[in-house]
Protein 1
Amino acid sequence: MQLNLVIKNGTIVTAENVYQADIGIRGEKIVAIADNLSGEREIDATGKLVTPGAIDVHVHHQMPLPSGVISADDFFTGTRAAAYGGTTTIIDFVAAEPEESLLDALAARQAEAKDRVVIDYGLHMTITPTDIAKLDQLPAVVEAGCPTFKLYMAYGFRLKDGELLQALDAVKQVNGLPIVHAENWDVICLMIAQNLAVGRTEPRWHPRSRPAVMEGEAVGRVIDMAALVGTPVYIFHVSCDDAVERIAAARRQGLRVFGETCPQYLLLTDAAYEEPGLAGTLPVCAPPLRSLTDQARLWTALGRNELQVVSTDHCPFSSADKALGLDDFSRIPGGVPSIESRFALMYTYGVLANCFSLKRWVRMCCTAPARLFGLTHKGVIAIGYDADLVVFDPNKQTILSTDLLHENVDWTPYTGFEVTGWPAVTISRGEVIVEDGTFYGTAGRGKFVERQLSM
Ligand code: DUC
Ligand code: ZN
């Protein structure tokens, strides 16, 4: 069989197995897994791990906030950084204007991404309060390849409980997956106002205005509503023990409840908000960073499969934008970067720290996101799947810094973090797009993936 590309002598890591074999690629697909393959081009992966391309189901590129500030990575810079870090598919978001149809909004967002994306991408459809009148459009959105629906319980465009129930029911009717930002917005608003009223304006009041117990309450509330309606539900950016406990309890009852956490909650704590001046504003995100105890619980939850996915919620804002909230923590644009470092951070601080196995690393960063989010040809190393692969050098030592990373932002919360293991080669649909630190991809080569759920 004529092979265009062969990855030779590597250790293949999948969610189920770790084994030695060569991988043969023809065109965009994996067509052979065997010993002693040869092809037009061969990459020697001796001493390296070969994994599926990582999948990041939670990213915000060029996302405008109501304040007018826009997240700093666009679809080119963000997906190029993702490729450097071994991520070959992302799922971003689309939100319709009040007068806009959901399909028009989808087309507009695809137009923003089209000429810029370096890797394949999908989009989650957001359901805001003004979209409750458009729920009859959901079948068309699913038909267009977007079967996952973002529901906010926080921010100005949150859904109130009645709207949330309506949205969950509508998503269930189309066999979609609701994905939820779960926090208690009324409590947060009150606590922010109370703190600001007495001059508590510094970033340290950000986590104190968004208590973990109320994240747990919101997670429990939406799980109960999803159970009432009979739909599965996926909880975004779980940050604390209270939220994990609700998810774990629901799963023990046999409910189809899933959750993710992100590197910031696994590796940073709320002590970061105690830093004076600008430094304390930078890691502001929502939910906020939590305590060391919460952090430890998240690692345990990943090891026990109480949480299934590690995504990033990559949403960088420049330090100049963060400084807009220097005198008022509630004005700090929320979000942190990690689209490039997630896969390696999870290897170093997860696998090498014995929190979970190699197989589970691949499961939570590649295979589970593909399965849960309907990326039917991705996240797995098997014949017929897309040749999205990473040749991962498990010995490469790196100290993270903004100079090393390619995210379009002038800071990273991971400055000084020591990482062992980094992608040496990233392959997207059979094309080498990063090799030994050089980028070979092109803007616009990524394709929109029409996703189909199989839950
Ligand atoms: N939280 C953040 O911190 N940023 C982006 C959106 C979100 O929910
Ligand atoms: Zn987000």
Protein 2
Amino acid sequence: MNKKALITGINGQDGSYLSEFLLKKGYEVWGTVKRNSVSETQSSRIEHLLKDGKVKLEYADLTDMSSLIRIIQKVKPEEIYNLAAQSHVRVSFDQPIYTTNVTGLGTLNLLEACRMVSPNSKIYQASSSEMFGNNIDDDGYQRETTPMNPVSPYGCAKVFSYNICRNYRNSYGMKIWNGILFNHESPRRGTNFVTNKVVKAAVRIKLGLQEKLHLGNLDATRDWGHAKDYVEAMWLMLQSTLKPDDYVCATGVSHSVKDLCDYTFNKLDLDFRDYVVIDEKHMRPEELYDLKGDSTKLRSELGWTPKYTFETMLDEMTEYWLNKYE
Ligand code: NAP
Ligand code: F7E
């Protein structure tokens, strides 16, 4: 019998890549989608996987525990990947209560649902480097032991989820892993996150479809990896024969938003300084300045290695947008 996996937020960037990855491994893949008045939007990233019923979808919302109980009861999955979230940091300042309900309490709804109807399922929790805030170890990295000090409502909600997962693991012996993932991107990344926003705009400027690119803080640095590499790390955690644990997943290399603009525009023979406009609208009330992760534990205990670099990832994203417009 094939293993069954349930992915919350299956139509997100990571959900779509994880579905492809698990299907290749022979899993029966189930996913939850959030109702949208435009039904195509609910499954836009996984349309290609719905043909032949490869992936099975159910409506569920992290804020509605009854919907989670219903689907977990129905599927009884061996593995649950909790990827659903209001995941945009800037938006979390505009919608802090909604973000906390979904990204924080939503996780508790899932854990309770699981504890009631499928306590032996293995659970992956999508924790985030945003939980560290501006804390950096003396050597310049963040790792599993770095104290958490979030600087956004999103980060605060993720810290709650991280802690409640640890609490359920310790209290009830549930098999729960926290993957503390640093930023990961792809052509499927929402275009309101900075990488895909920059790449899409640079291509449009190159093709004469756009004149300017409005951005916020260009000095912030991030450790950017590729989503395809990171969904493999999620799966590796749930296959571990060691006790359930918390793992940082990162490339260990960081770049500024300015570097990102420089590389992307240069590749298209453009100078970003001619097009980028600094716009207060994209600044955050409190900023997380620098992120660089040390994923030694994940690499040494579970054998993870990323295949993409910052440059090959951006090249793939640029290629995607060029193909789309040309
Ligand atoms: P994403 O593209 O924003 O996907 C999130 C998914 O969650 C979407 O399918 C979204 O549906 C769904 N969702 C939102 N609110 C929901 C609710 N109330 N109930 C059920 N589903 C809901 O995010 P991602 O980049 O794939 O990230 C996956 C997870 O990893 C998220 O939890 C994110 O916070 C976390 N994470 C991401 C990164 C990163 O760099 N990508 C790093 C660390 C952690 P709609 O599209 O219909 O709203
Ligand atoms: O911002 C700066 C911005 O929105 C990156 C989420 O997946 O990763 C993501 O959160 C940096 C920030 O990602 C613009 O101020 C400048 O310093 O792409 P982002 P994020 O906030 O790091 C973490 C790990 C998650 O868990 C989250 O779910 O870029 N920046 N100008 C801008 N950012 C945006 N979005 N738009 C701008 O115009």
